[in-house]
Amino acid sequence: MFLFYFFLISLFSIVDAQQLIKQDGSPVEIYADEAIEWHKNDNKYIAIGNAKAKSGSMILKSDKIEAFYDESDDSAMDIRLVKAHRRVKIIDNKLEITGGNLAEYNLNKDHFSIFGKDLVLTSEKNKLKSTNKMEYWRQKGVAIATGNATATKENEFIIKAEKLIWYINEIDNKMDVKKILGFNNVSIRSNNEVAFSDKALYNRMSGICKLFGNVKLQRGTSFLTGDYAEMDLKKGISKLMPAPGRDSLNENRVRALIDKGENYDRKKPN
Fold first, then answer.
1. Which residues contact residue 80 at a Cβ distance below 8 angstroms, ignoring those fewer than 6 apart?
2. Beta-carbon contacts of residue 19 (< 8 Å; ≥ 6 apart)
3. Which of 1, 22, 119, 244 could form a disulfide with 130 if both were Cys (CB 3.0 to 4.6 A apart)?
4. Do the Cβ atoms of 188 and 159 come closer than 8 Å?
């Protein structure tokens, strides 16, 4: 163990001398338990065994990490792309992404693409899941889940769609979701009500979720249908309306079917 530790110190002395950095000037540190290989002809480093890449508050962990760099005229090494293979985990302040089989981090764009069948992004009390792909734009504070995407916030709501977009806000060192966009086959479950639509927009500050296209509000076996609806997830009030920009109602835009025998006991979302 001592000899291996000495090897890492010697290697990083070489790396520091070669200025292994991001293009913005901040350093990129690479660690591994088994080995770190320097492929000079391919302009890359490979870290093997509990590999870790660290830059500022961001930590990327996996079984193997490849770091690709461009070498400038003064021999400085500018890291442009990092790839992580198997058991990928990303930590950025209080945000965490797990379940990845492959991840690519474009340092110029500060953008992650993570692939896997059980991807989970956790931020404070919020969770975002995907069975295919997740993207994370660090500077923009945007996360995108594609493929059977699900967003949850404790017992408040469950939002599902083919694609969900999170807008993340950092306040007082806390990461919170300020807005959620949903696209294609959207469903929203809150208390004892479930809603369906083509698209949805949730605003955390107002607690209102707006639904667009083929809207259906369902409680038990009773339902309302129309073009547009607003769900107040804080107050538990839903309104069905014509799509924005339309001045009048007609029977084709808003329709209700109410089951008089339905029992509406309030339940938490499952």
1. 23, 68, 69, 70, 106, 107, 108
2. 75, 76, 77
3. 119
4. yes
What Rg do the C-alpha atoms of the chain give, in angstroms? 24
Query: CA of 16: how far to CAs of 4, 48, 66, 107, 198, in Å?
Result: 18, 20, 18, 18, 52
Nearest to 103 by CA among 93, 120, 90: 90
CB atoms within 10 A of CB 254: 17
pLDDT in tens, the chain (270 residues): 222 332 333 344 333 322 344 445 567 888 999 999 999 899 999 999 999 998 888 999 999 999 998 887 666 778 889 999 999 999 998 899 999 999 999 998 999 999 999 999 998 889 999 999 999 999 899 999 999 999 998 778 899 999 999 998 877 667 778 999 999 999 999 877 899 999 999 998 898 999 999 999 988 778 888 899 999 888 888 888 877 765 544 444 555 554 444 554 444 555
What Å distances lie between residue 97 and 91, 118, 150, 162, 247, CA to CA? 7, 10, 14, 19, 45
Closest by Cα among 109, 9, 91 to 52: 91
Report the topology of domain 2-257. lipopolysaccharide transport protein A fold (2.60.450)
